[in-house]
Amino acid sequence: FSQRVNVPVKVTHSQPGRGFQLKHGVEGATGDFLLFLHSDTHLPSNFDVAAESCLKRPGNVAGSFAWSVDTDRSDGWFFNLEMRILKYFTDRRIQNHELPFGDNAMFTTRHVYDQIGGFQEVYLLEDVLLVEGLWKVGHIGIAEGEPVITSARRWRKWGLFRITGLNRLILFAHYLGVSTETLALWYYGDKLRVVMAATKKNA
């Protein structure tokens, strides 16, 4: 990223957990505009212009990009079909329900981010909690032009139905009121228990 874009890159360290990490990253940022990018997702070439244009639309307090995944012919026709179906429903979700996830590369202004309280220090659903805060103050638009490209690694390894089904189950349980810590333990299992124990020990 630093080789493609003339933006200073600062590496920071925080405790494990994406909510903790993103919050820590924002605290070290100095700009008036914030974009949250997952490490397995690539931005389009004109991402800055597209994001700025999206935020200028009346009513928009934040935005995200349309979504795509890095498949190729070697993945086979059935996997490519699954990913096209997933892309269709992902784009419908962010268009019709204004519900982008982290791999849509969300962006907003620092003013709005501070207004809604920013990222919560959680191990899971930090993106959904941020979106729920954004809903209270305005709309989440979609940047025009090229989509972001996310790695298909997870779907290649685990399959569409397992990944998407688990994500939907977690989201449904969240709306039923299950705590984010419980959901994270469901999602990550013993690996998270080890991380939480080590974090508590070092606190």
TrEMBL record:
GO terms for cellular component: plasma membrane. GO terms for molecular function: glycosyltransferase activity. InterPro entries: Nucleotide-diphossugar_trans. The keyword Membrane applies. It comes from the Eukaryota. Keywords: Cell membrane, Glycosyltransferase, Membrane, Transferase. Its main location: membrane. It is found in: Cell membrane. Signal peptide: none annotated. The keyword Cell division does not apply. PANTHER family: GLYCOSYLTRANSFERASE (PTHR43646), GLYCOSYLTRANSFERASE 2-LIKE DOMAIN-CONTAINING PROTEIN (PTHR43646:SF2). This is Glycosyltransferase 2-like domain-containing protein. It comes from Magallana gigas (Pacific oyster).
